[in-house]
Design brief:
Blueprint (H helix, E strand, L loop, with lengths): L2 H9 L13 E10 L6 E10 L4 E8 L5 E7 L3 E3 L6 E3 L2 E3 L3 E7 L4 E9 L25 E18 L2 E4 L4 E9 L6 E6 L8 E11 L2 E12 L2 E6 L5 E7 L3 E7 L3 E8 L7 E6 L4 E19 L6 E16 L1 H5 L2
Antiparallel strand pairs: 1-2, 1-12, 2-3, 3-4, 5-6, 6-7, 7-8, 8-9, 9-10, 10-11, 10-12, 13-14, 13-22, 14-15, 15-16, 17-18, 18-19, 19-21, 20-21, 21-22
């Protein structure tokens, strides 16, 4: 990859990073959309996979039923701009402020347009170009991650299998991943449906290959009242504890100033849909994801030797993935 292109895409995480990249490589964008009632919630995941059986795809997770769909397209159906976030897959169009869907398959049909208002990207700077911090500049990472909008409003409607669903007044979230493969183990969670409008929590912890070894790396962001509280490996924060059971994920983090406690209620097994995830050979990993989890969150200021509660709340319609948790908790 040319140096100028590497600089441009690193400083613009939303853009497509795969121009002139060789296999193995994948890139996928994740749109979470929830209507105003909270009853209709979907994850729409367009992307491209370059290895054996190179192709483009659009995955759809119906958070109400737990049904997951994988719509495969020829690689030639994929197009991405070089100087902005604009992706085409067949007749489908994806941007940071809107999407246009026209999926006509025997297993599922979706048609319509959604507009996104007041998007809130994770801040980007030269020192920390996005959610990965300075790790985004390392050219040999297995997987890169970007948060394109912590929270935004939605307008528009989709017709899903003949049913018109109005998303106007709903809330959305947007992120992406790219690289060679998903990690071998991870926990990911997200909600922007707290009692306080505009509050959003996103976090992930994974086994990260590093040279000839590996480490347990994490990034967490709590957006609340216009402030982003960051907890990450690169900020010097630590995971005080991580416990995963069939019912809950309990995760406690702290740095010099703040302490964050997260308890994720996993919900029923039937709520989880099985998505496909990439490794270096195929889109083969089965990734169980739910959009019905509940996140209980407490943020406290611990500077000065005293604990002062800054925020406490519960996030509904939460996205949750747990993959090979035993490998994470063994660190």
């Amino acid at each position: 990859m040319r140096l100028t292109q590497f600089l441009q895409t690193t400083l613009n995480p939303a853009w497509y990073h795969g121009h002139e990249r060789k296999a193995p490589f994948f890139e996928g964008w994740y749109y979470k959309i929830v209507d105003a009632s909270g009853q209709n919630r979907f994850a729409i995941i367009p992307g491209v996979f370059l290895s054996q059986n190179p192709h483009a795809f659009i995955q759809v997770l119906d958070g109400r039923s737990g049904a997951a769909y994988y719509h495969e397209y020829k690689q030639s159906c994929f197009w991405a701009a070089r100087d902005r976030f604009e992706v085409h897959i067949g007749a489908n169009r994806f941007y940071q402020t809107q999407l246009h869907l026209y999926i006509e398959r025997p297993t599922q049909t979706i048609e319509g347009e959604l507009q996104f208002h007041g998007t809130t990207p994770w801040p980007v700077s030269w020192q920390a170009p996005g959610v990965m911090g300075w790790y985004a500049w390392v050219p040999t990472m297995e997987c890169y991650h970007g948060v394109l909008s912590l929270d935004h409003a939605i307008s528009g409607a989709l017709i899903v299998d003949g049913e018109r669903i109005d998303f106007s007044g709903g809330r959305g979230y947007m992120e992406k991943d790219w690289g060679q493969s998903f990690p071998s183990a991870w926990v990911w969670l997200q909600s922007n449906h707290f009692e306080t409008p505009g509050t959003s929590l996103t976090g992930s912890i994974a086994v990260i290959p590093w040279r000839r070894s590996s480490f347990r790396g994490f990034t967490v962001g709590l957006w609340h009242e216009g402030q982003l509280y960051r907890f990450a490996t690169y900020t010097g924060a630590t995971t005080a504890s991580l416990t995963v059971t069939d019912e809950q994920v309990q995760w406690a983090l702290r740095d010099k100033r703040h302490q964050l406690q997260i308890v994720a209620q996993r919900g029923a097994q039937s709520d989880f849909g099985l998505l496909k995830g990439p490794d270096t050979m195929e889109m083969g990993k089965r990734v169980a994801e739910s959009l019905t989890a509940v996140l209980h969150v407490q943020l406290a200021d611990i500077s000065g030797g005293q604990e002062r509660l800054l925020f406490e709340g519960s996030g509904r319609c939460a996205g949750l993935e747990v993959h090979n948790a035993a490998d994470l908790t063994s660190f």
